[in-house]
Fold this sequence. Notes:
This protein is an alpha/beta fold. The chain contains 9 helices and 10 strands.
Amino acid sequence: MIRIRNLWKRYGSNDVLRGLDLDVRTGEILVILGRSGVGKSVLLRHIIGIEKPEQGTIEVDGLNITALKKNKIYSAVKHMGMLFQGAALFDSMNIEDNTSFYLRQHGDPQTGKPIPAPVIQKKVREALSMVGLEGIEKKMPSDLSGGMRKRAALARLIVYRPSILLYDEPTTGLDPITARQINELIVKTQKELKGTSIIVTHDLSSAFFVADRLALHNEGKIAYVAEPEVFMKINDPIIEFLRENVAYTMRKESRE
């Protein structure tokens, strides 16, 4: 379980996170909705230990990672993985090297011991196969479409089997068909790894496809958290706007 309490983050004079509280249940897919610039991605970077808050705590399975020094952070978050908005593949490496990067750098996630090259190659093939990218090991990221790069980045997570997965706008910039494929892979990955997933997105179709629960991030805090059916009935202007957009999207799709 992830337990966040009274989290504050400031950039200059701008308080992006303002006493944010959130509980993420083990084994669920939690989708965080909210306008651009409210701090959704900032929250993910705090959970995985990339940034430190001004105040507040993040506990992961009872361990307060916000109290750890930099040299202790990696050990605490090595079971986490993050899919960045732009995929964040290394442009100078082919897909095989991108996918195997974590295992070559850190070894076995459980023991830290080096993994033999043939075993790494097998794990890479299995991860790429899971996301439908068999046979592209020697291609460069520049050879791939946007959707393929997102899938390759997902394979890079799958290969070391993290138990907590963070997704930053996983379907942004993708066409509806490719976005649905990514959503299906997110659900498939969740079942395969038996993990916990946190997704921030603007894509309402994606949110309702993958979410066990929805959360609304507003004015630096989590305003509401609930199952999708309950969430959409909450009497709030922002959620009313979401309801109207969902209805519009469904009408549009029915005409196409």
